[in-house]
Automatic annotation (TrEMBL):
This is Transcriptional regulator. One of its GO terms (cellular component) is membrane. Coiled coil: none annotated. It comes from the Bacteria.
Amino acid sequence: MGDITLKINEIAIEYFSDNNSKFAKTMGTSEANIRNYRNGTLPKIDFLIKLSEKLEINFEWLLLDKGQKNRQNSESIDSDYTLEQKDQGKMPKVVTVDKSGSDNIVLVPVKAAAGYLTGYGDSKFIQKLPSYNFPNLSHGTYRMFQISGHSMYPTLHDKSFVVGEWVENWARDIKDDRVYVIVSITDGIVVKRVLNRIEKYGSLYCKSDNRREYPSFQINPKDIIEVWEYKMHLSFELPNPADLYERVNDLEAKIMFLESRVKK
């Protein structure tokens, strides 16, 4: 038991920077459980199997102290890697199809967002979610997410439904200033306008359209689970053009103010 505790603490420090919350989100468990495991409580075998699979750790090393820590030819979650290679050929872990064999568009409503972070690879969880078909979205792999909040206002309203197409290669296929649904272990499910700086700085920079109230932030690719590119959305509210006019008027006023200061 003591050896397992030491190894879990080692993993927590190496893979999650000693952050119990991040560790718990990755494993789909509670911070309390992680604290208990780090303090000497023996984890169930299911937890150890999942830990081995998630981080590509040699299960014999973890349980019996045999062999090397990492599986042969595997990479640490925190090691440097080329996303061009790591994400090439990846597809969603679970897709559902209709009677004709075409992919369904699975809906992840707000109330299921937390469960999706751990259930995205669980066929039983995905099959319980509602699914739909839309015209002109029959070629490709799509998923629909309900957004919450006003960070993308006025482009997207609170409780809108965003349909995104699966992005296979993040470094190559994520284009600047387009809208994406990003599923990550650190930020959950977010819909943002993105700047791709993976190759240059090793990060994606996420911007809200409502930048007065919601600051931009960055996401490390190693924390990302899935990326979906915006294709369409469903909303029950119409955008108010007055909001745009107010922004333009405010900008014009600022320019006039700066011009007057420069002339003085």
